[in-house]
Every structure is written in structure tokens, then in C-alpha cells.
Write a structure and sequence with these properties.
The complex is a heterodimer. Chain A has no helices and eleven strands. In chain A, strands 2, 4, 5, 9, 10 and 11 form a six-stranded mixed sheet that branches. Chain A has a five-stranded antiparallel sheet with strand order 1-3-8-7-6, with no helix packed on it. The chains are: A mainly beta, B mainly beta.
């Protein structure tokens, strides 16, 4: 059974810092891995999708990496801004289902 | 990216009534949609996979007679919470696979409060 873990559960940083969010999964037989952002009381916004054959994806200040063999992914946020404050969720897709981690709640202080 | 719309965003109902939540893919066709439930400060839990033109596939522990799912067209799936009780109060989110890459797009969510 696939299990997805995100560390840390919460993170508080001053504005301008670069930061890394971690995601690990137990079953390396995945189809893809997706990072999402969720604001309080809102739905999910897709940030980056990494296919199982890919190593990383970049979008603006965001960079996500995937090491399937070790069951790890990282989301790197450069030059963090207060508007980046949200909960970040990683999810892995395998056997038709998307399994979510518990999320990392990020607070960027001005 | 692809757009998924949910309606209503908030609903308050009395215990014992039924509530229907709609999930629409606005700019693409979705043969498969997914329904999730999220409790406060917790992650999303998959409830069921909705397949166009066939019965939904429910996850273990989810009552199919309680949570009725209908996927009548390639752009619309509905979740009906029947005989709602206060413990059904939660945030319900749907998703659909967009452009064949396997990327999932999510609706804005529907907050259900049962009094």
C-alpha cells in the first residue's frame, strides 16, 4: 500500500529565503508525482507535475525534483514571498489513484 | 491549465436532508473524475472514482448508498450526500484528469455543514 509522507508538517521562514519541502513515498512504481498548493478553505492548485520518467520540473520560482528509486521528491521555492504562504501537498499517482501526503503548511513572514 | 468547477461552494442543510454537489470540467472532457473528502487540518482522502457511463468505484469504508455518485456526461459528475448527518459535515473536492498527461485538476471545493 502506497504511503506518502511530507516533512516538515509546518515551516515558518522570513521573506526572501530559499526553502525546500520534502515528500517521500513507499512504492516506487508510480505513474507521476504532482505538487499542489492549497489556500485555507479553498481547492487545490496544481503547481508542478513530474512524470515517472522525468527528474525535475520548473515553473518560475518553483523547482520540483523526483528520485523514484529512493522514493523522494523535493519542492524548492526560491526567494520566498508572503504570498507563498499556504499548504503544499504532494501526491503520487499509481494504479489509477492519487495518494496524498499530509501537507506542509508554509508561512512566509514579511 | 484545465478548469474544474464545483457548485455549490458552501451549503448548509438540516439533518436528514439530501445535498447534491456538482463537478464540471469546463474546457475538456473527463471520462474519469475523483471525489475527495477533507477534514480540518488533514489531507485529502479519496472517496470514489467516478466513471462516465458506469458505476462509481468506492474506496473501502465509504458507503455507496450514502454517497451517491453519478457521472452522466463527459463534463459532469455529481455527488449526493443522502440523509445527511452532522458527521457528514466536511469539505468535499472533486478532480478530473485533463489533457492525457495524467495531471489532475481540482475544483474549488464544497463546504457542507449539516445542522
Amino acid at each position: 500500500k502506497q504511503e506518502v509522507t511530507q516533512i516538515p508538517a509546518a515551516l515558518s521562514v522570513p521573506e526572501g529565503e530559499n526553502l525546500v519541502l520534502n515528500c517521500s513515498f513507499t512504492d516506487s512504481a508510480i505513474y507521476n508525482l504532482q505538487w499542489f498548493r492549497q489556500d485555507p478553505g479553498k481547492g487545490l492548485t496544481s503547481l508542478l507535475l513530474i512524470q515517472s520518467s522525468q527528474r525535475e520540473q520548473t515553473s518560475g520560482r518553483l523547482n520540483a525534483s523526483l528520485d523514484k528509486s529512493s522514493g523522494r521528491s523535493t519542492l524548492y521555492i526560491a526567494a520566498s514571498q508572503p504570498g507563498d504562504s499556504a499548504t503544499y501537498l504532494c501526491a503520487v499517482k499509481g494504479a489509477g489513484k492519487l495518494i496524498f501526503g499530509q501537507g506542509t503548511t508554509l508561512q512566509v513572514k514579511p | 491549465g484545465a478548469v474544474v468547477s464545483q457548485h455549490p461552494s458552501r451549503v448548509i442543510c438540516k439533518s436528514g436532508t439530501s445535498v447534491k454537489i456538482e463537478c464540471r470540467s469546463l474546457d475538456f472532457q473527463a471520462t474519469t473524475m475523483f471525489w475527495y473528502r477533507q477534514f480540518p487540518k488533514q489531507s485529502l482522502m479519496l472517496m470514489a472514482t467516478s466513471n462516465e457511463g458506469s458505476k462509481a468505484t468506492y474506496e473501502q469504508g465509504v458507503e455507496k448508498d450514502k454517497f451517491l455518485i453519478n457521472h452522466a456526461s463527459l463534463t459532469l459528475s455529481t455527488l449526493t450526500v443522502t440523509s445527511a448527518h452532522p458527521e457528514d459535515s466536511s469539505f468535499y473536492i472533486c478532480s478530473a484528469e485533463g489533457d492525457g498527461t495524467g495531471e489532475l485538476f481540482f475544483g474549488e471545493g464544497s463546504r457542507l455543514t449539516v445542522l
